Amino acid sequence: MNKLKESVLLRSLLGFFLLFFVFVVLFVFIVPSNHQSLKTVGKLKFEKKDTVTYVAIGDSLTQGVGDTTNQGGFVPILSQAMGADFNWQVTSNNYGIAGNTSNQILKRMKEKADIQRDLKKAKLMTLTVGGNDVMHVVKDNITNLSVDTFNKPAVAYQKRLRQIVELARKDNKTLPIYIVGIYNPYYLNFPDMTEMQTIVDNWNKATEEVSKEYQNVYFVPVNDLLYKGIDGKGGVTSSDETSQSSKSTSKNLNDALFEDDHFHPNNTGYQIMSDAILKRITQTKKEWSGE
Fold first, then answer.
1. What span is annotated as the signal peptide, if there is one (predicted)?
2. How many other C-beta atoms can be found within 10 angstroms of the C-beta atom of residue 226?
3. Eight-state DSSP code of residue 262
4. CB neighbour burial string for 132-167, b if at least 16 within 10 angstroms, e if fewer
């Protein structure tokens, strides 16, 4: 009887140890595998972002004139968008000064050590240029203005634009540069200058021609996006009753432009610009990023 009990007890112990062995095997080979999967997921979720220096150089459009938040127009909007879309930690440096022509931008790039320093380490640059060059031609030839008046200034502008591109790449040979085209707000301020759209188109063509001479330099057109307002209704005539007579006065409106000057973009206009630049970057990023 004792031997029978001992036999049953022995079988029970063997069964227990067998189950324990199976449990240990499952724990060792299966649980760590799942744990490793969790670690992998966590690594993907919290992957370190690339630190990117973005340099914005230009005129009032880069400075952000018309942006009522006073944060810098399209530059901070674009920085945030690139960070979200490309998993970048973006540090932006805004070197926009209102009123600057291509010649003044070039001069600043030659003289300012901070611009040179940031360009050297930049991963991307945007450039707004040309609008003030056009305005100077308009002011200098206001009584005798035609499309042909802009031909010679455009050639000189192209030369300076090449110098800007080459100086930006002096210590950063493959720096991708996105040059934003000009747009036509002049019909609001100078409604009698009916050839201004042709002049703006020709000027943009001159800019695009230079951009095509270089690898990883891209032209970003914005005229069609801003020229006629948010819903394509730019130049809409609005009638306001004057307080001194029953006659009505007309004014042209563009809801993508700043109300105070009808020239620079408003907050929505800068969002439109940022979207256009981001779209162009997305289209071309593989050409220079190696991704």
1. none
2. 24
3. S
4. bbbeebbeeeeeebeeebbeebbeebbebbebbbeb
* 240 Ramachandran zone, left/alpha/beta (phi>0; psi -120 to 50): beta
How far is residue 163's CA from residue 101's CA, in Å, rounded to a whole number? 13
- Kindly report, residue by residue over 252-285, the tens digit of the pLDDT: 578 777 676 667 888 888 999 999 999 999 999 9
Distance CA 9, CA 14 (A): 9
Nearest-angstrom CA–CA distance, 126 and 124: 7
Q: What confidence score (pLDDT) does residue 248 get?
A: 39
Q: Which residue has the higher pLDDT, 166 or 31?
A: 166
Q: For the residues of 127-186, what is the DSSP string, one character each?
A: EE-SHHHHHHHHHHTTTS--GGGGHHHHHHHHHHHHHHHHHHTTT-TT--EEEEPP---H
* Cα 104 from Cα 97, distance rounded (Å): 9
- Helix (H/G/I), strand (E/B), else coil: 285: helix
User: Is 48 buried (19+), middle (13-18) or exposed (0-12) by CB count in 10 A?
Assistant: exposed
What is the rounded CA–CA span in Å between residue 269 and residue 275? 10
Give yes or no for a contact between 187 and 235, defined as CB atoms under 8 angstroms apart.
yes
- Residue-averaged pLDDT of the chain: 82
Taking the C-alpha atoms of residue 240 and residue 24, their distance in angstroms, rounded to an integer, is: 86
Task: Work out the angle at residue 153's Cα, subtended by the Cα atoms of residues 108 and 204, and round it to the nearest 5 degrees.
Answer: 85
Nearest to 178 by CA among 123, 225, 228: 123
C-beta separation of 78 from 277 below 8 A: yes
Token pair of 287, please?
Answer: 């050409």
- Which tokens is 55 given? 């340099």
Question: Is the dihedral angle over the CA atoms 96, 98, 103, 104 positive or is it negative?
Answer: negative
User: Residue range 28-37: average pLDDT?
Assistant: 47
What's the whole-model pTM score? 0.78
